[in-house]
Amino acid sequence: MARRQARFTAQELADDPRLRDHSSGLWREGLGDVQRGLLTSAVRCFAANGFHATTTRDIAEGVGLSPAALYVHFPSKELVLFEIVRTGHERVLTRVQDPSVLSARGDGPADRLRAVIAEYTAWHARHHVAARVCQFELRGLTAGHYDEILELRHRTNAFFRDTVARGVADGSFAQVDVKRVTRAMLSLSIDLVRWYRLGGSDSPEELGEFYAGLALKMVAR
Amino acid sequence: MARRQARFTAQELADDPRLRDHSSGLWREGLGDVQRGLLTSAVRCFAANGFHATTTRDIAEGVGLSPAALYVHFPSKELVLFEIVRTGHERVLTRVQDPSVLSARGDGPADRLRAVIAEYTAWHARHHVAARVCQFELRGLTAGHYDEILELRHRTNAFFRDTVARGVADGSFAQVDVKRVTRAMLSLSIDLVRWYRLGGSDSPEELGEFYAGLALKMVAR
DNA sequence: GTCTATAGACCGATAGAC
DNA sequence: GTCTATCGGTCTATAGAC
Q1: Chain B hits for A140, Cβ within 8 Å
Q2: Would you say the C-beta of A11 is within 7 Å of strand D?
Q3: Interface check B150 vs A, CB under 8 A
Q4: Would you say residue B101 lies in a domain?
């Protein structure tokens, strides 16, 4: 008995309502249909079973191909993971920095904080399966790819810290510990990928509003 | 090239300050010294590389034994993981339900909420390496063992929900959504195992107090 | 209780036909 | 671009000596 026990086949994963999210529309421009299909299949497999417990056969079966076909579209299993993780990190960072998101509710620090936390939270909920891979499968990356992702994460964290710091500086917020409070806000949005399911009592947007409200309570004067 | 790239040897892991925590004193009574040593080594390996990327050789090397020696002390690699995860879940649940913890600051709902959140948070910080395994390696368990752990988690969640609900019922807290708010509080304590390190700017107790304060802000009238 | 050696099974990636 | 077949390597777990 030399291997894994609690695995799920690609077919089971495709039918599992707990693995339903909006990630199939996430991938970069310029990728072919087969590549996108493989990424979507890989996301489900990695999220359900983990990177190391997922085989190239599992991923390929999810789109009805043989294991060898994967290597026509991606040079390695690790690069499938990297493509998923990089795309996810880039997409969410672009989204929260989008001017239309940033200023949707006004230009005061509280408006901005509310907007970016609601957006960041809703994004993780909408894409909770892909986001789970982005948050919890980074150990499958090579050292070089891991460093690239870390850079994106640092930029994201700095953006949120700055948003909090501005409200503290101009007196809109209380004199909180910016680093600690920002980390707590991001923890809420990140941890939801562990338990969130689409089709439950909270829509991504409702949860975003709720967590934005909690974030404002954390900095209330 | 049929295997992993970014792994760390047991010796590297033993010297890594990011993997220093208080888990070596965590194990059940009745276990021998070698068993405890193997569990401590396994915790470091699982936390750093993940369950599936960790080999029985890695675990055994951490205590200077050959790979075969592990099977004298544990019947399988999965049961090493189960012992770690079950012990962690039992220990933290026992701790937050301890009467001396519960009533340390008084018997009002706010006192109790502050006490249990501070304790739950500090426990996860003190044992952040083992806690990472408890939170993020559940997929390595067999279906039966996974269900046992889920039962412990449900009891823990119910305990915290009840603590919040009492304060809402007697008017100590605002009329919040108990389920959502409780989940947010636990998310803070759980997500810290992703980034927390001992020896940094926050001690486990300081972080516990800080998160207890945030929890009270979430339910403030 | 520890070791060396290895059985038995599986996986990532490649070769080569079509 | 997809397939079948398979290589080379690695893993969990066991056998058997000490």
Answers
A1: 6, 50, 53
A2: no
A3: no
A4: yes
The full 3-state SS of B17-85, as one line of letters, equals HHHCCCHHHCCCCCCCHHHHHHHHHHHHHHHHHCCCCCCHHHHHHCCCCCHHHHHHHCCCHHHHHHHHH
* Predicted confidence band of residue A12 (pLDDT cuts 50, 70, 90): confident
DSSP state of A24: G
**Residue B148 near residue B88 (C-beta atoms within 8 A):** no
Residue A147, amino acid: D
Q: Do residues A202 and A101 share a domain? A: yes
Chain A CA closest to residue B7: A139
Q: Which of B212, B221, B215, B116 is nearest to B173 (CA)?
A: B221
B1 falls within a domain: no
pTM of the predicted structure, to 2 decimals: 0.97
Where among B19, B53, B73 does a domain terminate? B73
Nearest chain B alpha carbon to A50: B139
The answer to whether A2 CB is within 7 Å of strand D is: yes
pLDDT digits (tens, 9 = 90+) for A79-114: 999 999 999 999 999 999 999 999 999 999 999 999
Looking at chain B from residue 111 to 140, which residues have their Cβ under 8 Å from any Cβ of chain A? 135-136, 139-140
Residues A66 and A129 in one domain: no
CA distance A114 to A128: 20
Nearest CA in chain B to A143: B6
- CATH number of the domain that A131 lies in? 1.10.357.10
Q: Which of residues 152-181 of A touch strand D (CB under 7 A)?
A: none
Q: Which domain holds residue A144?
A: 81-218
